TrEMBL record:
Protein name: HPSE2 protein
Record family assignment: Belongs to the glycosyl hydrolase 79 family.
InterPro entries in UniProt: GH, Glyco_hydro_79
UniProt lineage: Eukaryota, Metazoa, Chordata, Craniata, Vertebrata
Superkingdom of the source species: Eukaryota
GO term, biological process aspect, one: extracellular matrix organization
Gene Ontology MF: a single term: hydrolase activity, acting on glycosyl bonds
Length: 597
Protein backbone atom coordinates (compact mmCIF):
# COMPACT_ATOMS: atom_id res chain seq x y z
CA UNK A 1 0.00 0.00 0.00
CA UNK A 2 1.04 3.53 -0.72
CA UNK A 3 2.63 5.85 1.78
CA UNK A 4 0.86 9.09 2.28
CA UNK A 5 1.67 12.11 4.22
CA UNK A 6 -0.30 13.80 6.87
CA UNK A 7 -3.44 11.72 6.88
CA UNK A 8 -5.90 11.24 9.62
CA UNK A 9 -6.20 7.56 10.37
CA UNK A 10 -9.26 6.19 11.96
CA UNK A 11 -10.31 3.89 14.66
CA UNK A 12 -7.04 2.73 16.06
CA UNK A 13 -5.63 2.83 19.54
CA UNK A 14 -2.79 5.27 19.80
CA UNK A 15 0.57 3.91 20.81
CA UNK A 16 2.23 5.63 23.66
CA UNK A 17 4.19 8.18 21.70
CA UNK A 18 1.75 10.15 19.58
CA UNK A 19 1.19 13.96 19.59
CA UNK A 20 -2.15 15.50 20.45
CA UNK A 21 -5.09 15.12 18.26
CA UNK A 22 -3.06 13.84 15.41
CA UNK A 23 -4.30 10.31 15.55
CA UNK A 24 -7.87 11.22 15.83
CA UNK A 25 -7.72 12.60 12.37
CA UNK A 26 -5.86 9.76 10.78
CA UNK A 27 -8.73 7.67 9.59
CA UNK A 28 -8.14 6.54 6.07
CA UNK A 29 -10.40 7.22 3.30
CA UNK A 30 -11.90 9.90 1.28
CA UNK A 31 -15.13 9.72 -0.56
CA UNK A 32 -17.22 11.00 -3.34
CA UNK A 33 -17.59 14.54 -4.04
CA UNK A 34 -19.76 16.81 -6.08
CA UNK A 35 -20.82 20.40 -5.99
CA UNK A 36 -24.03 22.28 -6.46
CA UNK A 37 -24.69 25.89 -6.01
CA UNK A 38 -27.47 28.33 -5.74
CA UNK A 39 -26.86 31.56 -7.60
CA UNK A 40 -26.01 34.60 -5.58
CA UNK A 41 -24.74 38.04 -6.27
CA UNK A 42 -20.97 38.22 -6.03
CA UNK A 43 -19.67 41.14 -4.10
CA UNK A 44 -22.91 41.70 -2.16
CA UNK A 45 -22.73 41.17 1.56
CA UNK A 46 -26.52 40.99 1.88
CA UNK A 47 -28.98 39.04 -0.21
CA UNK A 48 -30.68 41.32 -2.70
CA UNK A 49 -34.48 41.48 -2.62
CA UNK A 50 -36.04 39.42 -5.37
CA UNK A 51 -39.57 38.54 -6.34
CA UNK A 52 -40.72 35.00 -5.68
CA UNK A 53 -41.83 33.00 -8.71
CA UNK A 54 -45.62 32.79 -9.08
CA UNK A 55 -47.18 30.10 -6.92
CA UNK A 56 -44.06 29.54 -4.82
CA UNK A 57 -44.26 30.09 -1.09
CA UNK A 58 -41.32 30.31 1.29
CA UNK A 59 -37.75 29.61 0.32
CA UNK A 60 -36.36 27.70 -2.64
CA UNK A 61 -36.56 23.92 -2.32
CA UNK A 62 -33.63 22.02 -3.76
CA UNK A 63 -33.99 18.45 -5.01
CA UNK A 64 -30.84 16.40 -4.55
CA UNK A 65 -29.94 12.96 -5.90
CA UNK A 66 -26.62 11.09 -6.13
CA UNK A 67 -25.32 8.73 -8.81
CA UNK A 68 -24.88 5.56 -6.76
CA UNK A 69 -23.81 3.24 -9.60
CA UNK A 70 -20.14 4.18 -9.91
CA UNK A 71 -17.72 6.73 -8.43
CA UNK A 72 -16.37 9.60 -10.47
CA UNK A 73 -13.08 9.52 -8.55
CA UNK A 74 -11.29 7.19 -6.18
CA UNK A 75 -8.81 8.99 -3.95
CA UNK A 76 -6.13 7.59 -1.69
CA UNK A 77 -7.28 5.82 1.45
CA UNK A 78 -5.06 8.31 3.28
CA UNK A 79 -6.31 11.48 1.63
CA UNK A 80 -6.20 13.96 4.48
CA UNK A 81 -2.68 14.76 5.67
CA UNK A 82 -1.02 17.01 8.15
CA UNK A 83 2.04 19.23 8.41
CA UNK A 84 4.05 20.08 11.50
CA UNK A 85 6.45 22.99 11.28
CA UNK A 86 10.11 22.08 11.99
CA UNK A 87 10.26 25.07 14.29
CA UNK A 88 9.31 22.51 16.95
CA UNK A 89 12.97 21.49 16.80
CA UNK A 90 14.08 25.11 16.98
CA UNK A 91 11.89 26.06 19.95
CA UNK A 92 12.03 22.80 21.90
CA UNK A 93 8.70 21.07 21.26
CA UNK A 94 10.44 17.97 19.89
CA UNK A 95 11.08 16.69 23.42
CA UNK A 96 7.34 16.86 24.11
CA UNK A 97 6.15 15.02 21.02
CA UNK A 98 6.34 11.71 22.80
CA UNK A 99 3.69 12.74 25.26
CA UNK A 100 1.43 15.13 23.44
CA UNK A 101 -2.27 14.33 24.01
CA UNK A 102 -3.78 11.77 21.71
CA UNK A 103 -7.11 11.92 19.92
CA UNK A 104 -8.49 8.61 18.77
CA UNK A 105 -11.34 8.07 16.37
CA UNK A 106 -13.18 5.72 18.67
CA UNK A 107 -13.45 8.54 21.21
CA UNK A 108 -10.97 7.05 23.64
CA UNK A 109 -7.93 8.59 25.23
CA UNK A 110 -6.84 12.15 24.66
CA UNK A 111 -3.92 12.56 26.97
CA UNK A 112 -0.20 12.33 26.96
CA UNK A 113 1.42 10.57 25.12
CA UNK A 114 0.81 10.34 21.56
CA UNK A 115 -0.05 11.32 18.14
CA UNK A 116 -3.61 10.37 17.65
CA UNK A 117 -4.38 7.64 15.18
CA UNK A 118 -7.12 9.75 13.77
CA UNK A 119 -4.57 11.90 12.04
CA UNK A 120 -2.46 10.10 9.60
CA UNK A 121 0.56 12.18 8.90
CA UNK A 122 2.76 15.06 9.68
CA UNK A 123 4.89 17.22 7.43
CA UNK A 124 7.80 19.38 8.58
CA UNK A 125 8.92 22.07 6.17
CA UNK A 126 10.74 25.35 6.61
CA UNK A 127 12.36 27.61 4.04
CA UNK A 128 15.63 27.95 5.87
CA UNK A 129 19.13 26.62 5.44
CA UNK A 130 19.07 23.82 8.02
CA UNK A 131 22.13 22.01 9.28
CA UNK A 132 22.59 18.25 9.64
CA UNK A 133 24.98 17.56 12.48
CA UNK A 134 26.37 14.11 13.27
CA UNK A 135 29.12 12.97 15.63
CA UNK A 136 29.86 16.49 16.71
CA UNK A 137 30.59 17.85 13.26
CA UNK A 138 28.25 20.44 11.80
CA UNK A 139 27.79 20.28 8.04
CA UNK A 140 25.57 22.85 6.25
CA UNK A 141 22.78 21.05 4.46
CA UNK A 142 19.85 19.99 6.51
CA UNK A 143 16.36 19.00 5.62
CA UNK A 144 12.69 19.42 6.05
CA UNK A 145 10.66 16.64 7.55
CA UNK A 146 7.28 15.04 6.92
CA UNK A 147 5.44 12.25 8.67
CA UNK A 148 2.90 10.01 6.99
CA UNK A 149 0.99 7.01 8.08
CA UNK A 150 0.40 3.83 6.17
CA UNK A 151 -3.10 2.90 5.05
CA UNK A 152 -5.41 1.57 7.70
CA UNK A 153 -4.76 -2.17 7.72
CA UNK A 154 -1.00 -1.80 7.64
CA UNK A 155 -1.15 0.82 10.37
CA UNK A 156 -2.83 -1.62 12.74
CA UNK A 157 0.01 -4.07 12.25
CA UNK A 158 2.65 -1.38 12.78
CA UNK A 159 0.95 -0.15 15.91
CA UNK A 160 0.77 -3.64 17.37
CA UNK A 161 4.47 -4.19 16.71
CA UNK A 162 5.33 -0.86 18.28
CA UNK A 163 3.38 -1.65 21.42
CA UNK A 164 4.63 -5.20 21.79
CA UNK A 165 8.26 -4.95 20.78
CA UNK A 166 9.50 -1.42 21.33
CA UNK A 167 10.31 -0.89 24.97
CA UNK A 168 11.18 2.69 24.14
CA UNK A 169 7.57 3.52 23.25
CA UNK A 170 6.65 4.65 26.73
CA UNK A 171 5.25 7.90 27.98
CA UNK A 172 7.87 10.37 29.14
CA UNK A 173 6.48 11.83 32.36
CA UNK A 174 7.35 15.54 32.37
CA UNK A 175 6.32 17.70 35.33
CA UNK A 176 3.68 20.31 34.54
CA UNK A 177 6.21 23.04 35.25
CA UNK A 178 8.28 21.85 32.27
CA UNK A 179 5.34 22.25 29.95
CA UNK A 180 4.65 25.75 31.29
CA UNK A 181 8.29 26.73 30.75
CA UNK A 182 8.14 25.29 27.24
CA UNK A 183 5.07 27.40 26.44
CA UNK A 184 6.88 30.52 27.61
CA UNK A 185 9.88 29.65 25.48
CA UNK A 186 7.64 28.94 22.49
CA UNK A 187 5.89 32.31 22.88
CA UNK A 188 9.26 34.06 22.70
CA UNK A 189 10.31 31.95 19.72
CA UNK A 190 7.02 32.79 18.01
CA UNK A 191 8.07 36.45 17.86
CA UNK A 192 11.48 35.51 16.47
CA UNK A 193 9.99 33.33 13.75
CA UNK A 194 7.46 35.96 12.74
CA UNK A 195 10.26 38.52 12.45
CA UNK A 196 12.12 36.10 10.17
CA UNK A 197 9.00 35.63 8.04
CA UNK A 198 8.36 39.32 7.55
CA UNK A 199 12.01 40.14 6.83
CA UNK A 200 12.72 37.06 4.65
CA UNK A 201 15.87 36.43 6.66
CA UNK A 202 16.12 33.05 8.29
CA UNK A 203 18.48 31.51 10.81
CA UNK A 204 19.94 28.05 10.35
CA UNK A 205 18.20 25.08 11.88
CA UNK A 206 20.43 22.34 13.28
CA UNK A 207 19.20 18.77 13.31
CA UNK A 208 21.48 16.43 15.21
CA UNK A 209 21.57 12.65 14.98
CA UNK A 210 19.94 12.58 18.43
CA UNK A 211 17.11 14.81 17.19
CA UNK A 212 16.63 12.58 14.16
CA UNK A 213 16.49 9.52 16.39
CA UNK A 214 13.83 11.15 18.57
CA UNK A 215 11.83 12.16 15.56
CA UNK A 216 11.98 8.76 13.91
CA UNK A 217 11.14 6.92 17.12
CA UNK A 218 8.19 9.25 17.61
CA UNK A 219 6.98 8.49 14.08
CA UNK A 220 7.61 4.76 14.31
CA UNK A 221 5.93 4.34 17.70
CA UNK A 222 2.97 6.29 16.37
CA UNK A 223 2.62 4.11 13.29
CA UNK A 224 3.64 6.95 10.97
CA UNK A 225 5.89 7.07 7.96
CA UNK A 226 8.62 9.71 7.95
CA UNK A 227 9.49 11.80 4.90
CA UNK A 228 12.53 14.06 4.72
CA UNK A 229 12.82 16.99 2.35
CA UNK A 230 16.56 17.41 1.95
CA UNK A 231 18.03 20.88 1.57
CA UNK A 232 18.33 21.80 -2.10
CA UNK A 233 20.29 25.00 -1.43
CA UNK A 234 23.69 23.40 -1.03
CA UNK A 235 25.18 24.16 -4.43
CA UNK A 236 28.41 23.50 -6.31
CA UNK A 237 30.08 26.34 -8.27
CA UNK A 238 28.25 25.22 -11.45
CA UNK A 239 24.93 25.46 -9.52
CA UNK A 240 24.41 21.68 -9.43
CA UNK A 241 23.25 20.20 -6.14
CA UNK A 242 25.97 19.35 -3.61
CA UNK A 243 24.78 16.03 -2.22
CA UNK A 244 27.61 15.32 0.24
CA UNK A 245 25.65 16.26 3.36
CA UNK A 246 22.56 14.44 2.11
CA UNK A 247 24.62 11.31 1.47
CA UNK A 248 25.90 11.46 5.04
CA UNK A 249 22.33 11.62 6.32
CA UNK A 250 21.23 8.79 4.01
CA UNK A 251 24.01 6.55 5.24
CA UNK A 252 23.26 7.30 8.88
CA UNK A 253 19.56 6.61 8.41
CA UNK A 254 20.30 3.41 6.51
CA UNK A 255 22.63 2.24 9.29
CA UNK A 256 19.72 2.61 11.70
CA UNK A 257 17.38 0.88 9.20
CA UNK A 258 15.04 3.86 9.24
CA UNK A 259 12.14 3.48 6.79
CA UNK A 260 12.01 6.96 5.23
CA UNK A 261 10.81 8.54 1.99
CA UNK A 262 12.43 11.63 0.50
CA UNK A 263 12.02 15.03 -1.07
CA UNK A 264 14.44 17.73 -2.15
CA UNK A 265 13.71 21.34 -1.29
CA UNK A 266 10.61 23.38 -0.53
CA UNK A 267 9.08 26.06 -2.77
CA UNK A 268 12.16 26.14 -5.04
CA UNK A 269 10.61 28.89 -7.17
CA UNK A 270 11.10 31.28 -4.22
CA UNK A 271 14.75 30.56 -3.51
CA UNK A 272 15.97 33.85 -4.94
CA UNK A 273 13.54 35.85 -2.83
CA UNK A 274 14.16 33.89 0.34
CA UNK A 275 17.82 32.98 0.08
CA UNK A 276 19.34 35.02 -2.73
CA UNK A 277 19.96 31.89 -4.80
CA UNK A 278 18.13 30.74 -7.90
CA UNK A 279 17.45 27.24 -9.27
CA UNK A 280 15.37 26.71 -12.43
CA UNK A 281 13.03 23.78 -13.07
CA UNK A 282 15.32 21.79 -15.36
CA UNK A 283 18.22 22.10 -12.91
CA UNK A 284 16.05 20.91 -10.04
CA UNK A 285 14.96 18.01 -12.25
CA UNK A 286 18.61 17.05 -12.69
CA UNK A 287 19.06 17.32 -8.92
CA UNK A 288 16.15 14.94 -8.36
CA UNK A 289 17.63 12.51 -10.86
CA UNK A 290 20.89 12.72 -8.90
CA UNK A 291 19.05 12.05 -5.63
CA UNK A 292 17.26 9.04 -7.15
CA UNK A 293 20.65 7.69 -8.16
CA UNK A 294 21.94 8.07 -4.59
CA UNK A 295 18.92 6.24 -3.22
CA UNK A 296 19.42 3.35 -5.62
CA UNK A 297 23.02 2.97 -4.42
CA UNK A 298 21.86 2.38 -0.85
CA UNK A 299 20.08 -0.93 -0.44
CA UNK A 300 17.74 0.34 2.30
CA UNK A 301 16.45 3.08 0.02
CA UNK A 302 16.70 1.52 -3.43
CA UNK A 303 12.89 1.46 -3.64
CA UNK A 304 12.15 4.46 -1.44
CA UNK A 305 9.46 6.91 -2.52
CA UNK A 306 10.50 10.31 -3.84
CA UNK A 307 8.17 13.33 -4.07
CA UNK A 308 8.51 16.78 -5.59
CA UNK A 309 9.09 19.51 -6.68
CA UNK A 310 6.80 21.13 -4.06
CA UNK A 311 6.39 24.40 -5.94
CA UNK A 312 4.38 27.40 -4.73
CA UNK A 313 1.14 28.64 -6.26
CA UNK A 314 1.25 27.93 -10.03
CA UNK A 315 1.43 31.44 -11.43
CA UNK A 316 2.95 31.96 -14.87
CA UNK A 317 6.62 31.75 -13.85
CA UNK A 318 5.93 28.83 -11.51
CA UNK A 319 4.12 26.91 -14.26
CA UNK A 320 7.21 27.39 -16.45
CA UNK A 321 9.32 26.10 -13.54
CA UNK A 322 7.12 23.00 -13.26
CA UNK A 323 7.32 22.37 -17.01
CA UNK A 324 11.11 22.46 -16.87
CA UNK A 325 11.11 20.05 -13.94
CA UNK A 326 8.67 17.60 -15.53
CA UNK A 327 10.64 17.45 -18.79
CA UNK A 328 13.68 16.22 -16.88
CA UNK A 329 12.37 14.38 -13.81
CA UNK A 330 8.66 13.71 -14.36
CA UNK A 331 9.28 9.98 -14.38
CA UNK A 332 11.59 10.15 -11.35
CA UNK A 333 9.08 11.22 -8.72
CA UNK A 334 6.25 9.09 -7.36
CA UNK A 335 3.92 12.07 -7.04
CA UNK A 336 4.04 15.70 -8.17
CA UNK A 337 3.60 18.20 -5.34
CA UNK A 338 2.65 21.86 -4.98
CA UNK A 339 1.39 24.29 -2.30
CA UNK A 340 -1.52 26.70 -1.99
CA UNK A 341 -2.29 29.43 0.56
CA UNK A 342 -5.45 31.42 0.00
CA UNK A 343 -4.80 34.86 1.46
CA UNK A 344 -2.19 36.92 3.30
CA UNK A 345 -2.86 36.32 6.99
CA UNK A 346 -1.61 39.80 7.84
CA UNK A 347 -4.51 41.53 6.07
CA UNK A 348 -7.30 38.94 6.18
CA UNK A 349 -10.80 39.77 7.44
CA UNK A 350 -13.57 37.41 8.48
CA UNK A 351 -15.62 38.38 5.42
CA UNK A 352 -12.80 37.09 3.21
CA UNK A 353 -13.63 33.53 4.24
CA UNK A 354 -17.18 33.93 2.92
CA UNK A 355 -16.22 35.08 -0.58
CA UNK A 356 -16.98 32.45 -3.19
CA UNK A 357 -14.46 34.03 -5.55
CA UNK A 358 -11.74 33.17 -2.99
CA UNK A 359 -13.02 29.61 -2.57
CA UNK A 360 -12.89 29.13 -6.33
CA UNK A 361 -9.24 30.18 -6.75
CA UNK A 362 -8.11 26.65 -5.93
CA UNK A 363 -9.92 25.13 -8.93
CA UNK A 364 -7.87 27.21 -11.32
CA UNK A 365 -4.64 26.20 -9.56
CA UNK A 366 -5.57 22.52 -9.82
CA UNK A 367 -6.25 22.78 -13.55
CA UNK A 368 -2.92 24.48 -14.21
CA UNK A 369 -0.95 21.80 -12.36
CA UNK A 370 -2.90 18.92 -13.93
CA UNK A 371 -2.38 20.32 -17.42
CA UNK A 372 1.41 20.31 -17.03
CA UNK A 373 1.57 16.93 -15.31
CA UNK A 374 -0.69 15.24 -17.85
CA UNK A 375 1.34 16.69 -20.71
CA UNK A 376 4.56 15.01 -19.59
CA UNK A 377 3.48 12.08 -17.37
CA UNK A 378 -0.22 11.26 -17.92
CA UNK A 379 -1.79 9.62 -14.88
CA UNK A 380 0.94 10.71 -12.45
CA UNK A 381 -0.45 11.26 -8.96
CA UNK A 382 -0.65 14.82 -7.69
CA UNK A 383 -0.45 16.01 -4.09
CA UNK A 384 -1.34 19.37 -2.65
CA UNK A 385 1.53 19.11 -0.23
CA UNK A 386 1.00 22.28 1.75
CA UNK A 387 -2.30 24.10 2.16
CA UNK A 388 -3.32 26.77 4.66
CA UNK A 389 -6.17 29.18 4.89
CA UNK A 390 -3.75 32.09 5.29
CA UNK A 391 -0.05 32.66 4.75
CA UNK A 392 2.43 34.48 7.01
CA UNK A 393 1.47 32.37 10.02
CA UNK A 394 -2.18 33.38 9.94
CA UNK A 395 -4.02 35.75 12.29
CA UNK A 396 -5.27 35.12 15.82
CA UNK A 397 -9.06 34.77 16.13
CA UNK A 398 -9.35 34.43 12.37
CA UNK A 399 -7.37 31.65 10.69
CA UNK A 400 -7.89 29.54 13.82
CA UNK A 401 -11.61 30.37 14.04
CA UNK A 402 -14.85 28.80 12.87
CA UNK A 403 -14.90 31.04 9.78
CA UNK A 404 -11.71 29.45 8.41
CA UNK A 405 -13.52 26.13 8.22
CA UNK A 406 -15.47 27.23 5.12
CA UNK A 407 -12.23 27.37 3.14
CA UNK A 408 -10.90 24.16 4.67
CA UNK A 409 -13.97 22.00 4.01
CA UNK A 410 -14.39 23.38 0.50
CA UNK A 411 -10.69 22.65 -0.15
CA UNK A 412 -11.22 18.99 0.75
CA UNK A 413 -14.25 18.79 -1.52
CA UNK A 414 -12.61 20.44 -4.53
CA UNK A 415 -9.44 18.39 -4.29
CA UNK A 416 -11.33 15.11 -4.03
CA UNK A 417 -13.66 15.91 -6.91
CA UNK A 418 -10.79 16.89 -9.19
CA UNK A 419 -8.66 13.84 -8.47
CA UNK A 420 -5.90 15.20 -6.23
CA UNK A 421 -4.60 12.15 -4.39
CA UNK A 422 -3.31 13.70 -1.16
CA UNK A 423 -3.70 16.99 0.70
CA UNK A 424 -1.34 18.08 3.48
CA UNK A 425 -2.86 20.57 5.91
CA UNK A 426 -0.66 23.26 7.38
CA UNK A 427 -0.50 22.61 10.23
CA UNK A 428 -1.08 20.57 13.37
CA UNK A 429 0.96 22.61 15.82
CA UNK A 430 3.35 25.47 15.12
CA UNK A 431 4.11 29.08 15.94
CA UNK A 432 1.32 30.62 13.86
CA UNK A 433 -2.47 30.52 13.88
CA UNK A 434 -3.22 28.04 11.09
CA UNK A 435 -2.99 25.04 13.38
CA UNK A 436 -5.54 22.45 14.50
CA UNK A 437 -4.76 22.53 18.23
CA UNK A 438 -3.59 25.36 20.46
CA UNK A 439 -0.53 25.27 22.71
CA UNK A 440 -2.62 23.77 25.50
CA UNK A 441 -3.43 20.97 23.05
CA UNK A 442 -7.09 21.93 22.96
CA UNK A 443 -8.80 21.20 19.62
CA UNK A 444 -9.67 24.21 17.47
CA UNK A 445 -12.66 24.33 15.05
CA UNK A 446 -10.76 22.90 12.07
CA UNK A 447 -9.69 19.96 14.22
CA UNK A 448 -13.29 18.97 14.91
CA UNK A 449 -14.14 19.50 11.26
CA UNK A 450 -11.24 17.28 10.18
CA UNK A 451 -12.14 14.63 12.74
CA UNK A 452 -15.70 14.40 11.46
CA UNK A 453 -14.42 14.28 7.91
CA UNK A 454 -12.12 11.35 8.67
CA UNK A 455 -14.80 9.45 10.53
CA UNK A 456 -17.49 9.82 7.91
CA UNK A 457 -15.80 10.15 4.51
CA UNK A 458 -14.50 7.27 2.40
CA UNK A 459 -12.22 7.19 -0.66
CA UNK A 460 -14.88 7.17 -3.41
CA UNK A 461 -16.20 10.42 -4.84
CA UNK A 462 -19.77 10.45 -6.23
CA UNK A 463 -21.52 12.78 -8.64
CA UNK A 464 -24.63 14.63 -7.50
CA UNK A 465 -27.65 15.87 -9.42
CA UNK A 466 -29.51 18.94 -8.30
CA UNK A 467 -32.78 20.48 -9.46
CA UNK A 468 -34.97 23.22 -8.08
CA UNK A 469 -36.20 26.73 -8.43
CA UNK A 470 -33.21 29.06 -8.65
CA UNK A 471 -33.42 32.82 -8.31
CA UNK A 472 -32.23 34.94 -11.21
CA UNK A 473 -29.40 37.39 -10.56
CA UNK A 474 -29.57 41.01 -11.52
CA UNK A 475 -28.27 41.85 -15.02
CA UNK A 476 -24.48 42.05 -15.07
CA UNK A 477 -24.06 40.21 -11.77
CA UNK A 478 -21.78 37.20 -11.59
CA UNK A 479 -23.43 34.03 -10.33
CA UNK A 480 -21.27 32.20 -7.83
CA UNK A 481 -21.84 29.16 -5.68
CA UNK A 482 -22.78 29.86 -2.10
CA UNK A 483 -24.30 26.45 -1.44
CA UNK A 484 -21.76 23.67 -1.99
CA UNK A 485 -22.64 20.02 -1.75
CA UNK A 486 -20.21 17.10 -1.90
CA UNK A 487 -21.06 13.38 -1.82
CA UNK A 488 -18.90 10.41 -0.81
CA UNK A 489 -19.27 6.81 0.09
CA UNK A 490 -19.32 6.62 3.87
CA UNK A 491 -16.04 5.47 5.36
CA UNK A 492 -15.71 1.69 5.43
CA UNK A 493 -13.96 2.00 8.78
CA UNK A 494 -16.95 3.57 10.48
CA UNK A 495 -18.77 0.56 11.88
CA UNK A 496 -21.84 2.61 12.81
CA UNK A 497 -22.91 2.50 9.16
CA UNK A 498 -23.26 -0.45 6.82
CA UNK A 499 -21.53 -0.47 3.46
CA UNK A 500 -23.55 1.19 0.79
CA UNK A 501 -24.29 4.28 2.90
CA UNK A 502 -23.55 7.74 1.53
CA UNK A 503 -22.25 10.86 3.27
CA UNK A 504 -23.08 14.37 2.07
CA UNK A 505 -21.27 17.41 3.34
CA UNK A 506 -22.68 20.84 2.77
CA UNK A 507 -21.36 24.40 3.06
CA UNK A 508 -23.99 27.13 3.24
CA UNK A 509 -22.49 30.59 2.75
CA UNK A 510 -25.89 32.20 2.34
CA UNK A 511 -27.21 34.42 5.11
CA UNK A 512 -30.48 32.51 4.98
CA UNK A 513 -31.33 28.87 5.55
CA UNK A 514 -31.67 26.49 2.60
CA UNK A 515 -33.93 23.47 2.24
CA UNK A 516 -32.88 20.27 0.48
CA UNK A 517 -35.18 17.40 -0.39
CA UNK A 518 -33.47 14.07 -1.03
CA UNK A 519 -34.72 12.42 -4.20
CA UNK A 520 -34.17 9.31 -6.30
CA UNK A 521 -32.09 6.65 -4.55
CA UNK A 522 -31.84 8.84 -1.43
CA UNK A 523 -35.60 9.29 -1.03
CA UNK A 524 -37.27 8.09 2.18
CA UNK A 525 -34.00 7.06 3.85
CA UNK A 526 -33.09 7.68 7.48
CA UNK A 527 -30.46 10.42 7.74
CA UNK A 528 -27.97 11.19 10.51
CA UNK A 529 -27.15 14.88 10.84
CA UNK A 530 -23.82 16.29 12.08
CA UNK A 531 -24.31 20.08 12.10
CA UNK A 532 -21.32 22.23 13.11
CA UNK A 533 -21.98 25.80 14.25
CA UNK A 534 -19.91 28.36 16.15
CA UNK A 535 -20.33 28.31 19.92
CA UNK A 536 -20.33 31.40 22.10
CA UNK A 537 -20.76 35.13 21.62
CA UNK A 538 -17.87 35.50 19.15
CA UNK A 539 -19.86 34.07 16.24
CA UNK A 540 -17.71 33.34 13.18
CA UNK A 541 -14.63 34.42 15.15
CA UNK A 542 -15.26 31.69 17.73
CA UNK A 543 -12.58 29.12 18.53
CA UNK A 544 -15.24 26.76 19.88
CA UNK A 545 -17.91 24.82 18.01
CA UNK A 546 -21.13 23.01 18.77
CA UNK A 547 -22.32 19.78 17.18
CA UNK A 548 -26.10 19.56 16.79
CA UNK A 549 -26.43 22.25 19.45
CA UNK A 550 -24.04 20.66 21.96
CA UNK A 551 -20.64 22.34 22.63
CA UNK A 552 -17.63 20.21 21.68
CA UNK A 553 -14.92 20.04 24.33
CA UNK A 554 -12.75 17.44 25.96
CA UNK A 555 -14.62 15.48 28.64
CA UNK A 556 -11.42 15.48 30.65
CA UNK A 557 -7.69 15.31 29.93
CA UNK A 558 -8.08 11.73 28.74
CA UNK A 559 -11.37 11.56 26.84
CA UNK A 560 -12.82 12.95 23.64
CA UNK A 561 -16.55 13.70 23.65
CA UNK A 562 -18.90 11.39 21.84
CA UNK A 563 -19.80 12.85 18.45
CA UNK A 564 -23.50 12.05 18.47
CA UNK A 565 -25.55 12.45 15.29
CA UNK A 566 -29.09 13.76 15.25
CA UNK A 567 -31.33 11.17 13.56
CA UNK A 568 -33.80 12.61 11.05
CA UNK A 569 -36.91 10.68 10.13
CA UNK A 570 -37.10 9.12 6.67
CA UNK A 571 -38.18 11.56 4.00
CA UNK A 572 -37.60 14.68 6.09
CA UNK A 573 -36.39 17.82 4.30
CA UNK A 574 -32.84 18.86 5.25
CA UNK A 575 -32.82 22.41 6.61
CA UNK A 576 -29.36 23.98 6.32
CA UNK A 577 -28.89 26.98 8.65
CA UNK A 578 -27.11 30.07 7.31
CA UNK A 579 -23.31 30.26 7.45
CA UNK A 580 -22.82 26.65 8.58
CA UNK A 581 -21.05 23.41 7.68
CA UNK A 582 -22.71 20.03 8.05
CA UNK A 583 -22.42 16.32 7.31
CA UNK A 584 -25.38 14.04 6.53
CA UNK A 585 -25.06 10.26 6.46
CA UNK A 586 -27.84 8.72 4.35
CA UNK A 587 -28.19 5.25 5.82
CA UNK A 588 -28.86 1.97 4.06
CA UNK A 589 -28.85 3.33 0.52
CA UNK A 590 -27.18 0.11 -0.64
CA UNK A 591 -25.31 2.14 -3.24
CA UNK A 592 -23.58 -0.13 -5.73
CA UNK A 593 -20.57 2.19 -5.87
CA UNK A 594 -20.13 1.93 -2.10
CA UNK A 595 -20.67 -1.77 -1.39
CA UNK A 596 -17.14 -2.88 -2.08
CA UNK A 597 -13.73 -1.37 -1.40
Amino acid sequence: SELIRGFLLSGMPCPSSCPPGLLALMAPGLALMATFSLPSQAGDRRALPVEKPPGVKGRTLILLDVNTKSPVRIISENFLSLQLDPSIIHDGWLDFLRWLPSLTLDGQSWRPPSLDKALASLRFVRNTNPVWCMSGSVVPGGLAISLFSFPFAVDIVRSDIALDKQKGCKIAQHPDIMLELQREKAAQMHLVLLKEQFSNTYSNLTLTARSLDKLYNFADCSGLHLIFALNALRRNPNNSWNSSNALSLLKYSASKKYNISWELGNEPNNYRTLMGRSVNGSQLGKDYTQLRGLLQLIRTYSRAHLYGPNIGRPRKNVVAFLEGFMKVAGGTVDAVTWQHYYIDGRVAKVTDFLKTRLLDTLSDQIRKVQKVVNTYTPGKKIWLEGVGMTSAGGMNNLSDSYAAGFLWLNTLGLLASQGIDVVVRHSFLDHGHNHLVDQNFNPLPDYWLSLLYKRLIGPKVLAIHVAGLQRKPRPGRVIRDKLRIYAHCTSYHNHNYVRGSITLYIINLHRSRKKIKLAGTLRDKIVHQYLLQPYGKDGLHSKSVQLNGQPLAMVDDGTLPELKPRPLRAGRTLVIPPLTMSFYVVKNVNALACRYR
